[in-house]
């Protein structure tokens, strides 16, 4: 993998992680949101309040825009850029937060 590409993906992780650090961390720690295998956030619990659902949409829109930029710069597909980010995000997920497993949501 190109170093520039990996650096861009890691930069995205930092950007997305800090843009909504308090709200996103809270939503994850309360079990409302989790990291999906496709690079996007997912709704873990259907009882999440509207503010959490808005945060989910906002972060996923930002991720899409970043995946598109990374893909264009590196001559890869958006899905490939998202897949690299997903692997990084799943590894960085805090213990006790949710990640998408093969059969559904699991606590890390």
Automatic annotation (TrEMBL):
<protein>
    <submittedName>
        <fullName>DUF1318 domain-containing protein</fullName>
    </submittedName>
</protein>
<feature type="signal peptide">
    <location>
        <begin position="1"/>
        <end position="21"/>
    </location>
</feature>
<dbReference type="Pfam" id="PF07027">
    <property type="entry name" value="DUF1318"/>
</dbReference>
<dbReference type="InterPro" id="IPR008309">
    <property type="entry name" value="YdbL"/>
</dbReference>
<keyword id="KW-0732">Signal</keyword>
